[in-house]
Amino acid sequence: MNQIELSVPYDNGYEPDDYMMQEDEWDRDLLLDPAWEKQQRKTFTAWCNSHLRKAGTQIENIEEDFRNGLKLMLLLEVISGERLPKPDRGKMRFHKIANVNKALDFITSKGVKLVSIGAEEIVDGNVKMTLGMIWTIILRFAIQDISVEETSAKEGLLLWCQRKTAPYRNVNIQNFHVSVTPD
């Protein structure tokens, strides 16, 4: 039995490239925006300090002050209420990597996937990786476990942001990834 294959092009009105665009291409400009990065540094530093003050310390520069892993480990102990393994007290690179790895292992043990974030990036002061790690910590330890009236914390926070910004004509928050302001 012979089969005849008919080739009929499917046209839904979209360009094939619309489906092929990778998500990281959508917000590349936002990710490289120095003003955005500065705001994230300021916000995340304030969040970290609000917890580190409970242990009698704070950070000034988010990508520098977590490089040796000591304050990162302390932050995790404060926000989780759990003890982490004893930190290495040496000042050499391998001591710093060991400490950051202890912190990252702790985060991973809480069921958090750390995609592309390694101890070396944090020790080297990679600001984007450090900010990504802190955002992951915030999501896991400050937002994820909260729920009100069957709404997840993330959804609740989005709703709160939408309500607070509703009076502003040029603000339209749709998600925590990218929000667009009307022209």
Protein model, in words:
This is Actinin, alpha 2b. Pfam families: CH. It comes from Cyprinus carpio carpio. One of its GO terms (molecular function) is actin binding. It is built from ten helices and two strands. The protein is mostly helical and 183 residues long. Strand 1 and strand 2 form a beta hairpin. The longest helix has 19 residues. It is globular and about 55 Å long. The relative contact order is 0.09.
Features:
183 residues; mainly alpha; two-stranded antiparallel sheet; 2% strand; globular; actin-binding; CH_dom_sf; CH_dom; repeat; Actinin_actin-bd_CS
Strand segment tally: 2
Cross-sheet strand order for the largest sheet: 1-2
Mean pLDDT: 80
- By secondary-structure content and strand pairing, the structural class works out as mainly alpha
Shape estimate: globular
Give the oligomeric state of the chains in this entry, treating copies of one chain as homo and distinct chains as hetero: single chain
- Low-confidence parts lasting 5 or more residues at pLDDT below 50? 4-8, 18-26
| Largest β-sheet summary | 2 strands, antiparallel
What proportion strand?
A: under 5%
- Helix count, per DSSP? 10
Order of helices and strands: HHHHHHHHHEEH
Distance between the termini: 60 Å
Helix content: 40-55%
Give the topology:
Elements: H1 16-20, H2 23-26, H3 28-31, H4 34-52, H5 62-65, H6 70-80, H7 93-109, H8 119-123, H9 127-143, E1 147-148, E2 151-152, H10 153-165
Antiparallel strand pairs: 1-2
Q: How is this structure best summarized?
A:
This protein has 183 residues and is mostly helical. The protein has ten helices and two strands. It is globular, with a radius of gyration of 22 Å.
